[in-house]
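Possible race condition, two jobs.
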Amino acid sequence: MADFLHGVETILLTKGPVPVREVKSAVVFLVGTAPVHTTVPQGMSEEDWYEQVVNSPLLILSREDGAKYFGQPTPGYTIPYALDAIFDHGGTVIIAVNVFDPRVHKNASGQPDPSAVQPSDVIGSVSSTGRRTGLQLVDTLFSQFGFTAKLIIAPGFSTIPAVATEMIAKANLKSVRAMALIDAPVGYTVQQAINARGAGGILNYSDYRAVICYPHVKVWDTTTNTERLEPLSARLAGVIARTDHEKGYWWSPSNQELQGIIGIERQITASVNDPNTEANQLNAAGIVTVFS
């Protein structure tokens, strides 16, 4: 039986008092870390709370949802910052998975430490009992929510080739068919990014479901009152979701304004008339870029 469908598919969400209809192509699957040890509800044990917020897909429809489960933006943790980046572009449906476990990821003093999270935690696994973690939870989204994600992001981790490869594999699942938004490493020059797309390069992904994002962008961190570099992927996800909502999935997110940034990691030359500008060279190499 053919599964081709003309038009826009929507999903009806009944979370909260008022049902919300959302565009199916705008659902974001986000994997990362959050300071869940700071969000334990009063009267609930840490153990019970961690069972809810560690390696459990959670439906996030607003900044308030994000703060409830994942806390405020905190240096070292990726999910709260990514949620802010997406919601800066308007509302959408986010399914977020926190892989940081305060019971496991600790420093030498026994304090919660997000730097102890390993790429293998993000990639995830499937236990002998069928319990899934990390990116492996993509497989469960339809059975849990009745829909799946169309954008897969892991800001702060997608620069790691093993993580990016797994993101692409999940995006290619017949039951998912998503796009994996993968960040180039921070600090890369334009030429390094282009070279990384060549044979043997760490960005040499030929899969059309892989979207390479470069460079990092600058934001003002209100927590530390300092300028901070952040991966482009979360804000690109926000732009794509907003475009799908407002104009339809067939409308390109190209030439759209990024919200919430104060600059980019390095200036990119651009011109619609000159194919030799850096923006055009990056695009020719299959890299999504941003310029100001």
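Job #2 (started ~2 s after job #1):
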Amino acid sequence: MRVYLVAESAGGRMDIDGFNKAYTEYFQDQDRNYPSRTVIQVAAMVNPGWLIEIEATAAK
């Protein structure tokens, strides 16, 4: 999983704490193997209203 987070306008840093909280809430089962992830801070997205973009690859 590759995640792009837009930096906050006030502090200039991405909200990694908020992302980690959401990730933990979604992937909360301790008996599962969770996807590896890379989180990258970006200045902006193509759509100015977007704050996050997630790329995921799944295989069976």
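The chain has one domain: 2-55.
Logs attached separately.
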